[in-house]
Amino acid sequence: MREGTRSVKRISGLAGQVGIGAPDESLTSASGVVAIAELVGRLAITTALDDAIGPIKQRDRGLSAGQLLVSLAQTQMLGGDFLTCLDRRRDDIAAEALSAVPTPPSTTAAGLADRFGPAQLAGVEEGIGELTCRAMALLPAKRRTGLRTGTATIDLDGTDVECYGSHKDGIAYNYKGQRAGRPHVATWAEAGLAVAADLLAGDEDPRPGAGGLIERSVATIRAAGVSARPRVRGDVGYFAKEIAWAAVTNECDFSLGVTRNKAAWRAAASISADEWTPAIGMKGAQVAVAAYTPAGWPPDTACVVRRVRIRAGDISTDPRARNGAPSRKTSSPWRWTAWSMRCTGTRSSPPTSTCPPLPKPPHWRRGTACAPISRTAFATPNTGRRCATYPQAAGPSTPCGCGAPCSRSTCPPGCRN
Q1: Could you report the per-residue pLDDT of 51-65, keeping only the tens digit for each?
Q2: Domain boundaries, given as residue ranges, for the chain
Q3: Cα–Cα–Cα angle for 392, 397, 400, rounded to 5 degrees
Q4: How far apart, in whole angstroms, are the C-alpha atoms of residue 314 and residue 105?
């Protein structure tokens, strides 16, 4: 502190004007709450969430469900990682005065969070769908038109969030040995918005629930005014015929990473030299279509292979670095490596099905949201015969395609879902 005082004295004109003491309560380092408050006010975020979620308490006092969610999100945006960070935010008097919603104590927030059941969690997603529509309406005309008429990509992805405490619900050890939860999110890539999400345990496979995410995501972006045919995109972890069929059934194209199995490598190795085409926007890369179609996938599925040319001296000598890539001896100082494969599919019209059209999803209470309610929390194992045109799913999960909307009264005899 003495060194800081000497530094101040060396600055001309500041000597005697700077004092060191208790911080001024009228100042805050979290001035970004002003921007958050403006966003909350313009979109009426708390009202939209409250309408979709409904009341979570018998008495109308304290924070509502929407206010709780906004306060938690605001704390995270300001760097908070734990519920105890709420208490630190409350100590910032200036930031609290600028905030759109009051920050609850950590113990109060934990108690209110316990009141969120499956119906309330589905309402959160429904409210986010309504907010997506409101945000689209406020965009400049050029940006709004581009999003509605241009390419609409639904990006599927999951990530592990490490947690602490052995009594947390829905948490399990993942493959890294971490106690974690696994948010499974579908993002509208061009808009940068999450349009559907599920929370899984760290050891749960996200593939069985991907069909539900696709269905709900399509409903949200359609309600936002998107007229283009959506495209579902996923990495190798989503290499499953059920996900491809779910995309086609929901009138989407798809592009899914291919597991590098022996059949795929054989097809890649059989591509002739004149079939390779330079990749657009990627120097040294070439693409081609391989004669490989996974069994049970939608008709007209194509496997697109990409290879990148790298100097031989830059390639690892470890034989595992090739990861099964076809080996071709050559005297050239360049080698084709960094291979990637994706299965893609497009359809001009949805496939025929014996299932009835998807009914309009119900809304929770008096919500006006655009997005349908998530049915993941209510999914039950399917042991009955599926509709005739739907492929068999792997595992006892609710199938994609006709899925939960089908009922015994409208499906063919014996169709459980």
Answers
A1: 999 998 877 788 999
A2: 26-116, 252-346
A3: 60
A4: 55
